[in-house]
Amino acid sequence: MKVAVVGATGLVGTKMIEVLEERNFPVSELIPAASEKSAGRIIRFKDSEYKICRLADAVSQEPALAIFSAGGEVSKEWAPKFAQTGCRVIDNSSYWRMDTSKKLVVPEINSDVLTENDYIIANPNCSTIQMLLVAAPLHRAYAIKRIVVSTYQSVTGSGYKAIKQMQIERTGAEWGKYEAFYPYPVDLNILPHIDSFTDNGYTKEEMKMVNETHKILCDTIAVSPTTVRVPVTGGHSESVNIEFEKDFDLNELTNILENTEGVTVKDDVKNNIYPMPLYSFGKDEVFVGRIRRDISVKSGVNLWIVADNLRKGAATNAIQIAEKLIEKGILQK
């Protein structure tokens, strides 16, 4: 199978290529594509070397699958061009997510919606993926009424420039004396600001969590998010409070999560065992711990959820979608 990775030199694109190899995805030929300035660079995949090409060249090679992580404007222009050749496109940008004609998929939750007619499929936001992987089985069991979520998101979610800013700051460089990605220092700091602010006072990142929850899980769930950037690199963390329509037994709830595909429970507070980005780095599971009743309402639970945002939050989820397309016979090996 010819597989194109669009945005192959970015943080997520690099991780996509890594995950394709790790999961032994049936790639007969890799077509790494990126911007003009990256064209001609050499990357390695499965002990072979591949030259990065321009997007037009990638389209002309007619891949069966194209996985995008190059930003919304690139996806807007180029995803339809790939799709017109019969290529299946899985897009990691936010551009197609709320398009009513496009599916928004977390494979463990709603891969059943995928059909032969889907040529552009949207990959959800990283924070949404890890929250909903935990929330979905609980919604089926107890009917979620409301979610209040505060995120603690890694600088890796902003790409190479953000990581570089933090690294420079850790050398003691004076603020304002170097090129910065964020409007303030990020090291030894916390920024309650991810993406741009909207008219309602919430950021676009926060509204993604609201809108994507409604599209993937249920449009009656009230979602109140606050997204925050923190100076870590291992993954995103979330403090999630869920209020249910039905009451629940805490042991039963925990057992549901222990038996949920893609979720690992790490919850032994007596021995200081709980999820942390330090241990989620490089892993595909979504980790959940600090599972406890909300003592302020009758049917509420508090959860601490952590996942590697570059893997399950982006690259791995996209490739799992492709694996589902093969499983359904929509993509041919």
Structural description of this entry:
The structure is a single chain. 31% of the residues lie in helices and 22% in strands. It is an alpha/beta fold and 333 residues long. It folds into two domains: 2-124 and 314-327, NAD(P)-binding Rossmann-like Domain (Rossmann fold, 3-Layer(aba) Sandwich), CATH 3.40.50.720; 127-309, 2-Layer Sandwich (Dihydrodipicolinate Reductase, domain 2), CATH 3.30.360.10. The radius of gyration is 20 Å and the shape is globular. The mean pLDDT is 97. The protein starts with a strand and ends in a 6-residue tail after the last helix.
- The total count of helices amounts to 10
The H-and-E topology, N to C, reads as EHEEEHEHEEHEHEHHEEHEHEEH
The strand line-up of the biggest sheet is: 2-1-5-6-8-7
Poorly predicted segments: none
**Distance N terminus to C terminus?**
6 Å
Helix content: 25-40%
Beta-strand share of residues: 15-25%
Radius of gyration: 20 Å
> How many domains?
2
CATH architecture of the largest domain: 2-Layer Sandwich
What form results from the Cα inertia axes? Answer: globular
Structural class: alpha/beta
Give average pLDDT, whole number: 97
- CATH fold-level assignment of the largest domain: Dihydrodipicolinate Reductase, domain 2
* Count of strand segments: 14
CATH homologous superfamily of the largest domain, by name?
Answer: Dihydrodipicolinate Reductase, domain 2
In the CATH scheme, the class of the largest domain would be: Alpha Beta
Main sheet specs: 6 strands, parallel
